[in-house]
Structures are given as structure tokens and as C-alpha cells.
Amino acid sequence: QVQLWESGGGWLQPGGSLRFSCEGPENICNTFDLSSWYRQAPGKQRDLVASIRGYDRTTYADSVKVRFTNSRDNTGNRMDQQMNSLKPEDTAVYYCFGGLFADGEMVYWGQGIQVTVSS
């Protein structure tokens, strides 16, 4: 398991927007069979927010559809999650994930970043 590096968290009032980034070594993000974002709210289990299978087959949890958008940087070095219309219930620690499964299994996790949405 190799760490990914996340940035972009912080505090924001309801209705605001944030962009998270998740970086990996070299161009590893271009190779992921599955890229995902998870979050864990205080006192709750970790939940899947969004996933990209391959390059463009993207799915979102019902709670974030329309409001959140995932993408990959053209350099292959970074994955981004744009979060709009943030709500207090979006408050959580967010984790990025990348998986390689073609020739065995390798998984990469970000360190987690705090997002707090409140007035």
C-alpha cells in the first residue's frame, strides 16, 4: 500500500465550494483501474462518495450527485474532486483511493483531509 497526497480541505459556509486534489508518484493516477473518494463523518463509518472506473465511467453517491464532480488532471499526476453547494452534512474527513488490479492488487490511499461546512 502506497500513500497518495491530498490537499484542498478546510472550512466553508453552507452553499460554498471546494476543490480537493489527490496526487500520486509519477503518473500513477493515469494507470488506476478504479479511482474513488470516500468520506467519514464524525461518529459514522467511512462511505463511498464517487468512483471512476478506467478513465471516464464515473458514479456518484446519491447524496452528492450534481453537486460533486470528479476528474483527472491531463498530466496524469492528480485527481480532483470539485464540491459545490456544500451542506453541513458534507462535514467529514475525505480520503482518495486508487486501485490497480490487472496483475494482482495494489491499492493507494490518501492521508485524509478535513472538510467542515458550517455557518
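Above is the first protein from milestone M3; the second protein from the same milestone is given next.
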Amino acid sequence: QVHLVESGGGLVQPGGSLRLSCAASGSIFSIDIMAWYRQAPGNQREVVALINSGGSTNYADSVKGRFTISRDNAKNTVWLQMNDLKPEDTAVYFCNGLLRGSGWIRTASWGQGTQVTVSS
């Protein structure tokens, strides 16, 4: 079974920073494509950042220039550095993507996410 655990969220003031961590486990050989998602109350879950196996990244327009996604392949971990946070960034943040094992590639089950609240 593939598990993802998100951590690092919290309450910050506008303009502050947070670093989110996504740790994958479950006999995973490697991460193919991994993305950070967020979902605010009443909204659809949206992709905010993604990174592929070669390290190429892409970002939603709303976070471009402020957020940075990175990965450590040896540790099966993905991070999201969030700078210059704004109230509209408030949401539950999730990670997911395509992960490889022995003879398979699949998404993980959704984790609990980590709450990010930006407020003064």
C-alpha cells in the first residue's frame, strides 16, 4: 500500500513563509510525477505545483514566483516552499502523483493533507 504524509502547515501572517513536506512510503522505487494540490472550502481541488522525474516543474499562475516545488528522489520526499503567502492561499494542501514500484505505477491514496491558514 502506498502512503503519503503531508506536514508543515500552520497559521502564518500575510507575507510569511512555510515549507511543506510530502513523504511517500510503501515499497516505492521512485516518484515519477508528483504534485501539490490545495482545496479551500467550497472550491475544487486544484493543482498548484508539479515536478516530473527529471526535475522539470510547473506552477499555477496564482502561485508562480512565490512557491517552489522540489524533490529528493533518494528519500521519496517532495517539498513545497511557500513564500509571500497571501490570504487566498488558505487551504488544505495535499500531495499526490504517479509512483513506481516493482512492475507497477499508480497514484497513492489521498492523505489527510496539511492545513495552511494565512491571516493577520
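Note on the second protein: The CA atoms of residues 15 and 84 lie 4 Å apart.
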